[in-house]
Amino acid sequence: MLRIAIVCSVVWVAMSFCACRHIEQSSLSLRFEDLHLLPAEELFDDLDCELRARKAMHIDSLFKRLQRLTGFNGVVLYAEKGHLIYQQAFGYEDPLRKRKPLSIESRFELASVSKMFTATAILQLKEQGKIDLDTDIREYIPEWPYENITTRLLLNHRSGLSRYESLADEYWPDKTVFLTNDAMIRLYMQYRPAPYFKPNGGFHYCNINYALLASIVERVTGVRFADYMMEHVFIPAHMTHSEIYQINNEGRLNGYRQGLVPGYDSRGRRLVSVPDDYLNGVVGDKVMISTVSDLYNFEIALNTGVLLSESSLKEAYSSGSPAYRHRKDNYGFGWRIRTEADSAVYHYGWWKGFRSFFIRDLAQQKTLIVLSNKAKGPGADHFWKLINDTVYELPKASAYYLVSRQRIDQTIRPEI
């Protein structure tokens, strides 16, 4: 009886100082059977609640300071040890006139953070035996004019291919017409720009690699890249506000993009809204639209095996190039590898008025997602300090809690 009284006292104290969970007074009359069935994770969840609240206040003060010092305008999500600790919106959809406050559900262009999703699609097809990572990509794109380039080299940015943006700027005749992936391939066939180096001769981060990966997905599956991603990535991961940007039926630019917050660039001291661009017709390397909540759901889907096997994830998080003293970090499949950390993977994005940051420390189970619609703002160093901050360190979540949390998250999300 003494043990039961102690347990009940601890539960009462935890619920007294923590407002994270509201329980009616009548539920405190626990029977022995209730105590026996009460999972330990429920008790520890309450005891950790005050610590999580302090952590959230700490993060809030950091971003409010960044807003004052750098003009940060965007949305933030931080999770640790299986708990969603903090999410908050700062600023406006229109930061120039300070109109329409941003919200947690505001949709942003992800820029190069899109690449991790393209890599996920490729690895799914590899698991199904539809793609061999070490086969020449002309197996899938027969008209491609360069030899000895494999899907793996594209994933690791080791193809040596030159930038499609430079090629299009010089040779795409009408900049009011979207450049598509197929049109991009035709430009390479027609003009054959010299590669930077031979395949596998080095590392060079270049958008052409992931644009070609999206084309491979389309050739292998016979469906548009946007449709494949919706059916096989976004829907299974409960990413209900995500999509690949699709150009209009006319194939011509029509001012500004719809369905997402506008992006803003700096012209001297003045902010200007960035119109749609003809390069936004190329997919795979960019132009995915999403929210911080959807990106967190993507991480949950990866951690719980919804999208990829454990072996595929291990390969995605592995360095694709030899260590080099002048190279700070390495690159896997759609993820940059932080060499200073034990197991940190991340990606940044910067494109046409948008900046995005997706940082994950796998060992510490910490995740920080930052989306902004201003081209200028705080640098990544501020975000890594938060990841490495040991203030209010949380205990590790149990496997039971993570699985239960995933089931709860799936239950409360709207049907697609």
List the helices and strands and how they pair.
Elements: H1 2-17, H2 32-37, H3 40-47, H4 49-70, E1 74-80, E2 83-90, E3 92-94, E4 99-101, E5 108-109, H5 115-127, H6 151-155, H7 164-171, H8 181-191, H9 207-221, H10 225-234, E6 243-244, E7 264-267, E8 270-273, E9 288-290, H11 292-303, H12 310-316, E10 330-331, E11 336-338, E12 344-351, E13 354-361, E14 366-372, H13 380-388, H14 399-412
Helix pairs in contact: 5-9, 5-10, 7-8
Explain what you see.
- This protein is of the alpha+beta class.
- It has a domain at 108-388: 3-Layer(aba) Sandwich (Beta-lactamase).
- It contains 14 helices and 14 strands.
- The chain has helices spanning 2-17, 32-37, 40-47, 49-70, 115-127, 151-155, 164-171, 181-191, 207-221, 225-234, 292-303, 310-316, 380-388, 399-412, and strands spanning 74-80, 83-90, 92-94, 99-101, 108-109, 243-244, 264-267, 270-273, 288-290, 330-331, 336-338, 344-351, 354-361, 366-372.
- It has a 7-stranded antiparallel β-sheet, sandwiched between helices. Strands 5-9-6 form a 3-stranded antiparallel β-sheet. A two-stranded antiparallel sheet has the order 3-4.
- Helix 5 packs parallel to helix 9 (207-221), helix 5 (115-127) packs across helix 10 and helix 7 (164-171) packs across helix 8.
- The protein starts with a helix and ends with a helix.
In short:
This protein has 416 residues and is α+β, with helices and mostly antiparallel strands.
**What is the CATH H-level superfamily of the domain at 108-388?**
DD-peptidase/beta-lactamase superfamily
Helix count, DSSP H or I runs of 4 or more residues: 14
- Quaternary structure: single chain
CATH topology category name of the domain at 108-388: Beta-lactamase
Strand content: 15-25%
The strand count comes to 14
- State the helical fraction: 25-40%
Distance between the termini: 50 Å
CATH architecture designation of the domain at 108-388: 3-Layer(aba) Sandwich
Structural class: alpha+beta
Q: How can the largest sheet be summarized?
A: 7 strands, antiparallel
